[in-house]
């Protein structure tokens, strides 16, 4: 396959690429070689920080030799090249630095349960993507690996913490890549890079083998994609629980991929463009994008009402700050284990160091109260949604932000999150409540940059069904970044 053919494959989504292999038109090895060609052409983005080409070719060759791909309708993604975020998607025997200088020599000894599911589905893993340290930032510019460039513009962040994955997908290197989301870390880069970014509901998949939950339930993993159907198919792959998981949710009656073939019943949608946090205005172009989606949903037969659930933003911000200080104290302990010595300030990012120092003095009572606050505000939020199925809000309150804004120390962890929430607005409430939330690339700024619009609901099915309707009514596939390598 020549370079031109490899680039042409950039516009084919994951399901489409798998169909090329299943039909015998291409082999899994040929798909992988094409993806490597595109990755080499996009090196300037600094999206991929660990190449795993040899393991990818070995896996792809084994898939081709097995002969199952030619008629495999059970695994709709088999043979597709795939990238793993270098945080929360450990692959045994490969480096896992998690964006931290303290962990630069760390090699994973076990594969994450979700990664095993990806491999069982026939996805061909051939690299790991850039991420900020410990996923702390909604931007991707770690000191260890340097910033990832947004394919839309070198002046705006690709978002974070799944920014490397988002940039690789947005540029056309791969049709999909894994991500994780603790206060918006899938949806923020989806908004910044013009992609589909779904945060699943709490408990949808497992944190096995080494965890029962992520940051007291705030964190969930999934992927960045360009099409809704790819997001649904990948969610099918990771849905379920491992033996002994402390929290689980029922599997849907039908697969998510099958569910999106059917339109949803008329949904009752509540919508607002106001920021949930004081002193954080919403940009007029973001407001216009959300309002356009509200009109489109009404035209599709859904009921759309103005309003929003209430919660105590100050209590939420305090609780999020406390949970992050404890999480970063854990990073310090892990860094000590990997380094074999007491970590020093220079081993970590300045903002992480602030969180760690606070974490060392966070009391058990404060931690327990933060968890209690999360639960109490979840109940208040849910009560405010009574009579409605879905919340429609901005993903970001602003246009894609510049570098150097969302990763800086602010003196205290709470001050750090005050700055973040002034940009991200509603994203964290999906993590607090455990609701599913999806960002869709349904708006564009006057400068041609992407604007994400967000839908939240207790379960993923209705979000994916609405997303398919919007994908048809307000298509985004023709909008490509200047850094597109197809």
Automatic annotation (TrEMBL):
Enzyme class, first EC level, given as a word: hydrolase
Domain of life: Bacteria
Domain Amidase, first and last residues per copy: 30-458
EC number: 3.5.1.4
Pfam family, one: Amidase
Segment forming the signal sequence: none
Gene3D superfamilies: Amidase signature (AS) domain
Record-linked SUPFAM superfamilies: Amidase signature (AS) enzymes (SSF75304)
Reaction(s) catalysed (UniProt annotation): a monocarboxylic acid amide + H2O = a monocarboxylate + NH4(+)
Recorded GO MF terms: amidase activity
Family per similarity comment: Belongs to the amidase family.
Protein name: amidase
